[in-house]
Structure formats: C-alpha cells, structure tokens
Amino acid sequence: MNRNELGKVILRVVLGFIFFIHGFVKFQGGIGNTAGFFDSLGIPGFLAYVVAFIELVGGIALILGIGTRVVSLLLALIMVGAIFTAKLPAGLLGNGQAAGYELDLALLAMAIYFVLANKSALSLDHKLFHSEKS
After folding, report:
1. Which InterPro entries match (predicted)?
2. What is the pLDDT of residue 133?
3. pTM of the model
4. 20 and 134 in contact (C-beta within 8 Å)?
5. Per-residue model confidence (pLDDT) at position 78
6. Considering the domain boundaries, does residue 74 fall inside one?
7. Does residue 133 fall inside a structural domain?
C-alpha cells in the first residue's frame, strides 16, 4: 500500500464519518425541527429528510468505499446548497450570530476530490467489482 492510497482512505473515512454524524444528528434531534429550519430558509421541508438520509447512508457508504463518486457528488451538491442558502450571509468565518461556511467549504472540496479521483484500491467497491486482468 502506498502513502497516497492510505491518505485517500483516511480522507474518505473522515468525510464519511462527518456526514454520517450530521445525518444522524438531524434524525436524533427531530427531523421535523430540521424540516422547519429548511422551511424558514425557503427550502421545502421534505428536503430535510432527503438531505439527512443522504448524509447518513452516504456517510456509511463513504466509510466502506461503496459508490464513492456518486455519493460524493450528492454530498457536494448538499454543501453548495448549504453554503448558498444558510451560510453565505454570515461570511466565511461567521458573524458571531451564525456559523460561517469554512467547514462547508472544506467538506465541499473533499467531496469534489472524490468525484474527480481514481477509485481507491482500499475500498469495498474495488474488492467486490475489480477484475484482475491477466
């Protein structure tokens, strides 16, 4: 195993864990509250369920290395939405009243990396679907 592959796995697992926790908290804290927050931003509340589901299941998928490119694209779209609908007015570092979008921007960059990167040899996708060429 080379260092680049190890770095890719660490980055993928951390990104997956962060999104898993965010999705879990949305359900644990009452998804209705999250739906209400979405409504207050002018976003249809039902999308809270979609976002929480993608974060929860997508986080697990990233940790395992299943569908990394597709999951990362969905998570990148969520981050773009979060930045432009909820975080942008507060600025990069926040304004004392609301959090900034620096974390969202970092998560967006990580997700985009996995959309563009080659598949990892250290993923469940690779183990299940990689055929050795003789």
Report:
1. DoxX (IPR032808), DoxX-like_oxidoreductase (IPR051907)
2. 52
3. 0.90
4. no
5. 97
6. yes
7. no
Question: What length does the chain have?
Answer: 134
Domain enclosing residue 24, as ranges: 3-121
Domains in the chain: how many in total? 1
Residue 62 belongs to some domain of the structure? yes
**Which tokens go with 37?**
């927050």
The Cβ of residue 104 has, within 10 Å, a number of other Cβ atoms equal to 21
Answer whether 91's CB lies under 8 Å from 100's CB: yes
Is 131 within a domain? no
Which among 86, 72, 59 has a CA at the least distance from the CA of 117?
A: 72
Helices (H), the chain: 3-28, 31-40, 46-64, 68-82, 102-116, 124-129
